[in-house]
Amino acid sequence: MAKVVSTLFISADGVAEIDPDWHFPYFDDNMGRAVGEDYDTADVLLIGRDTYDSFAGAWPDREAAGGDDAGFAKQLGDVRKIVVTRQQLEFSWRNSEVIQGDLLDVVTALKADPDIKGILIPGSISVVQQLLAAGLVDELRLLVHPVAARKGRRLFDDGDKPYHLKVTLTEVFPTGAIRVIYAPTAAPATVGYDEVKDQVPA
């Protein structure tokens, strides 16, 4: 089964809608390496329309310019990109396609495809929220910035049930940013009041 991995820049107060004012002061070589490792997990990018427009408006030109990030830009151009949108689009960026069918059905089929090693969702908050609710996200890879954004869209929306997560990796960068990789897990066993009371020193 292919893994579905979400990778997001996020503030300490949970905002995942990037503002350059709080993001770029913390982007360094360490964060760049972490981002590269995330992209190396996948041969399919699953992205929302806004994320696609942002990427397609920047990375093809960077690839053509041949600068320091041209190699990464080529990697993005070469990978298969599935855009989650209800609109029919004409693509100028190679290997791009509009999702065909229901999001959950498409992702379930991609996960079961033996020719696919991984599906990466960069940004695309609404896509991640839908897949989290359906239990289809295998890893959340968060780059937590040491700043409270105080405004913007948050990753975790309101809902009836909590998402229980286990930490599989943490890394602290010199900037104070923290890389955390979570995997969904079952809720821990409930501990009764009497058991907790017995564990508290007198």
From TrEMBL:
Q: Which residues belong to any copy of the Bacterial bifunctional deaminase-reductase C-terminal domain?
A: 3-174
Q: What is this protein called?
A: Dihydrofolate reductase
InterPro entries noted in UniProt: DHFR-like_dom_sf, RibDG_C, Riboflavin_Biosynth_HTPR
- The source's domain of life comes to Bacteria
Tell me the GO molecular function terms: 5-amino-6-(5-phosphoribosylamino)uracil reductase activity
- Which GO terms of type biological process are on file? riboflavin biosynthetic process
